[in-house]
Design goal:
The chain is mostly helical. The protein folds into 2 domains: 8-70, no CATH class; 98-192, no CATH class. It has 9 helices and no strands. It has helices spanning 8-18, 23-30, 34-42, 62-70, 98-101, 103-114, 120-127, 131-138, 161-192. Helix 1 (8-18) packs antiparallel against helix 2 (23-30), helix 6 (103-114) runs antiparallel to helix 7 (120-127) and helix 6 crosses helix 8 (131-138). It is elongated.
């Protein structure tokens, strides 16, 4: 990440208007030339630019500005905060063209063959078809089974590789849990005998 603040010119406008920092301090912080900052103060540069408050955006603190205002040789330091931008968790249903609709059963067949540990409900959720269809494909009784060709759903862009990995990990955890429960049940039966 760059050391420059977000919207450096607008930030410089705000710093010139609202602080007693020197032009050099503002120029160094905003990665601008000192003459540009002087032009901002004179009203010759950045005429239509709205001031951007770096305190509200979390790039500077009041204390940092006050310390640098008291000492003209002290440079402003930008707050280093790693902001995690999360994608929206809610998946938006998108329109699937007619030509791509056959890819869903093909993808379900691929998942059944490649990742047999996945439950039918997991495959149905990933691919976007009914659980009943997945069960029919698994049992080879799907109405169009003879015409199905296994295709990688990630390559077809039906879902992401991350979604697939998460589903596989969940299936592995379920298998381990079922195995432990089975062992526990066997041990309890052996102690009862």
């Amino acid at each position: 990440m760059s050391d420059a603040p977000l919207m450096p010119m607008a930030t410089a406008v705000w710093l010139v208007e609202n602080t007693t920092l020197t032009f050099k301090q503002i120029a160094d912080f905003c990665k601008l030339h000192e003459v540009e900052v002087q032009g901002i103060a004179d009203g010759e540069v950045a005429k239509g630019i709205k001031a951007y408050n770096p305190i509200i955006s979390g790039q500077l603190s009041r204390d940092e500005i006050e310390l640098s205002s008291k000492d003209n040789n002290r440079p402003l330091k930008i707050k280093s905060s790693d902001i995690e931008i999360a994608s929206s968790e809610k998946k938006i249903k998108k329109y699937i063209p007619l030509s791509k609709r056959q890819d869903k059963p093909d993808s379900a067949l691929w998942l059944i063959k490649q990742h047999s540990t996945l439950k039918d409900s997991q495959i149905a959720k990933l691919v976007g078809i009914t659980k009943n269809s997945v069960t029919l494909i698994r049992n080879k009784s799907y109405w169009n089974y003879n015409n199905l060709n296994p295709k990688d759903p990630v390559a077809l862009n039906l879902f992401t590789q991350k979604d697939l990995v998460n589903a596989i990990e969940k299936a592995e955890r379920r298998i381990k849990r079922e195995k432990k429960e089975k062992e526990k049940l066997q041990k309890s039966q052996q102690t009862n005998d």
